[in-house]
């Protein structure tokens, strides 16, 4: 409020605050005071309009507290649509809660791949018991009928016949000194008996026994109803390097365990 406005208010207060009188004179004084008050109020309004100040805003342009209650509130924002489902391979190990529980009940350290190629899911989680202790196999397959498995045992491991291609391995979980084999057997007699190409690793020593990756040829020998092809050697190395021991939080979706 400007100094002129303050001065006018001061005059109004003085005029309105004169001592009261009685009788007819009191009535006349009252009427006169009201008239003067109305005149001064009109002048005050004109001065307010002349200064261009909005009574609902302060001099700095911000809304006054008294005017906040008259502000219109914005309508509620529309709810955003839910996010799309995660793509294939987004869940660690692609293991269902049922398979997770089934594996943990073995009471051993379960090595699982924390990365699988896109499109792969757990086809089956097979558990069993050997004389030396429990064992398991996790079989993975994609829509192109490619497959591989992570196998565990507690006994009966040995070497492999010579296979034409070898890739050195150094998985963080097991360390160096292991080999990924792929291709045909170098022995002609074995080639004649087992013409399929191989994809298989050495047995790798871990906390609860021995672990390895096997490909289509070994899976089809054990499960004749399963027909599939190998993943590439580079993909197999990535799977092996990603192996980690299963924890309760490492679960994802997949097919029902058998």
Radius of gyration: 43 Å
**What is the number of strand segments?**
11
Total number of helices: 6
The N- to C-terminal Cα distance equals 83 Å
Helix content: 25-40%
Q: Beta-sheet strand percentage?
A: 15-25%
Element pattern in H and E: HHHEEEEEEHEEEHEHE
**General form:** globular
Structural class: alpha+beta
Describe the structure.
It is built from six helices and eleven strands. By secondary structure, the chain is α+β, with helices and mostly antiparallel strands. Strands 2, 3, 4, 8, 9 and 10 form a six-stranded mixed sheet that branches. A three-stranded antiparallel sheet has the order 5-6-7. Strands 1-11 form a two-stranded antiparallel ribbon.
Brief overview:
The chain is α+β, with helices and mostly antiparallel strands. 28% of the residues lie in helices and 24% in strands. The longest helix is centred in the first third of the chain and has 29 residues, at 23-51.
